[in-house]
Amino acid sequence: MSHFHFQNNELFVEQVSARQLAADYGTPCYVYSRAALETNYNNFQSAFHNQQHMICYSVKANSNIAVLNLLARLGSGFDIVSGGELERVLRAGGDPGKIVFSGVGKLPDEIQRALEVGIRCFNVESEAELLLIHNIAAAKNMLAPVSLRVNPDVDPQTHAYIATGLRENKFGISGERILETYRVAEDLAHIEIVGVDCHIGSQLTDLGPFQEALKTCLEIVDTLAADGISIQHIDMGGGLGVRYREETPPTIEEYAAAIKQMIGHRNMELIFEPGRYIAANAGILLTRISYLKDNDLKHFAIVDAAMNDLLRPSLYNAWQNVIATVQSNQTPGVYDIVGPVCETSDFLAKERSLAIQSGDLLAIESCGAYGFVMSSNYNSRNRAPEIIVDGHDVYVVRQRETIDMQLALESLLPE
Ligand SMILES: Cc1ncc(COP(=O)(O)O)c(C=O)c1O
Questions:
Q1: By three-state DSSP, how is residue 285 classified?
Q2: pTM of the predicted model, to two decimals?
Q3: Choice from 40, 41, 44, 58 to test ligand 1 binding pocket (greatest atom count within 8 A of CB)
Q4: For the residues 192-212, what does the mean pLDDT come to?
Q5: Helix axes 178-186, 208-226, angle to 10 degrees
Q6: Distance CA 263, CA 69 (A)
Q7: Ligand 1 neighbours by CB, cut-off 6 Å
Q8: Which of 29, 56, 198, 342 is catalytic?
Q9: Residue 342 a catalytic site member
Q10: pLDDT at residue 393, as a whole number
Q11: Which of 140, 160, 325, 364 has the greatest count of CB atoms below 10 A from its CB?
Q12: What's the Rg (C-alpha) of the chain?
């Protein structure tokens, strides 16, 4: 049974109705299913059970500390991209020895802190960053473990804003320069080369680009081996797509089989940085219809969630399924689902066929990844609460913001 399902025509998250959640905690609100999060993690884990590997959940996808804590309890490692994410993982009980640190713009204090807590590896994105990490490690008389992130110039066939492995993207070190950068690293006394890293994009729905990227990584491993530089792990990044609409991403078993086939008998640990795969379909956003409004061309459902709560539709023109939380037999109309923010780009969905009325409760599906984490206070709106449902139990893992919380960091000039 899906963790989000209809029972007597009403949407339930595990054993709790959406209606009850909205009545108790208000709208808009993010709701995650603990079982869905855990099932997704466990499925990834079991697909690679006979391959030496480590899952480093990509914190950016959903960084609520309760979510991180649940994954840490299952043994997950973490992929971080900032000092803030590092502190979240530590406070959530994550093991620093299972943290990989990605990102093109690591700052000196972030590098220092990561070295101090003993992370597993820095995924280095440029020679300049390598030298900075070396200098910081030298000053502390430490050894910094690194992987170099190759940009394999592979087209991941995804939205341009989430493609990261093309030559024109800012990420990684080009195929032409990667070997010489490894040789620079090899000569640095406070750097320890441990891996090769790539991440070519997000929401990939074909295996081909992953295979191309892995081929590049394996060529690097082999060339370095011939030079006497041994690599302990390949980090494949994240990027496995999920189903929002009609996409047919590879199953986790297909993804694992393709990768394992290419690794063959090599004695090589694999690291994965899945974000969306674990969290996207483990969460929904509940929102209530404030008004229905028609003009000559369109019907609008104006809801109490907006682009500040869920940015993906505005940012990427992303399509997410919207459902009424109570099934009805009325004839549906075609609506744009829009928020109260003063931007034409403030829409959550366009041209959806729904049988709805003012006051109805809607659920936007697949909101567990890149949902709350991208939310803001634009239009001085309080950010939504985050809730985890576990069977019959409900936990508020982030409260709804208040205007006092929003204004706490601001002050007036003196008279
Ligand atoms: C370096 C890195 N690793 C992992 C991820 C997670 O990607 P996804 O959520 O598509 O699995 C991202 C996301 O963009 C990333 O930049």
A1: strand
A2: 0.97
A3: 58
A4: 96
A5: 40
A6: 31
A7: 58, 60-61, 79, 102, 199, 202-203, 237-240, 273-277, 369
A8: 342
A9: yes
A10: 98
A11: 364
A12: 23
**Domain identity same for 250 and 311:** no
Q: How many domains does the chain have?
A: 2
pLDDT tier at 323, thresholds 50, 70, 90 = very high
Tell which phi-psi region holds residue 126, choosing left (phi > 0), alpha (psi between -120 and 50) or beta.
beta
Token couple for 373: 């984490």
Give the confidence band of 1 by pLDDT, cuts at 50, 70, 90: low
45-84: pLDDT as tens digits: 999 999 999 999 999 999 999 999 999 999 999 999 999 9
Domain range holding 189? 103-272
What per-residue confidence (pLDDT) applies to 206?
Answer: 95
Q: Is there a single domain that holds both residue 259 and residue 284?
A: no
Question: pLDDT of 85-130, one tens digit each?
Answer: 999 999 999 999 999 999 999 999 999 999 999 999 999 999 999 9
CATH code, domain carrying 327: 2.40.37.10
Taking the CA atoms of 376, 379, 380 and 382 in sequence, report the sign of the dihedral they define: negative
**Is the predicted pLDDT of residue 314 greater than 80, yes or no?**
yes
260 and 112: one domain? yes
Output the DSSP codes for 164-175. -SSTTSSSSEET
Which domain-ending residue is among 272, 296, 311?
272
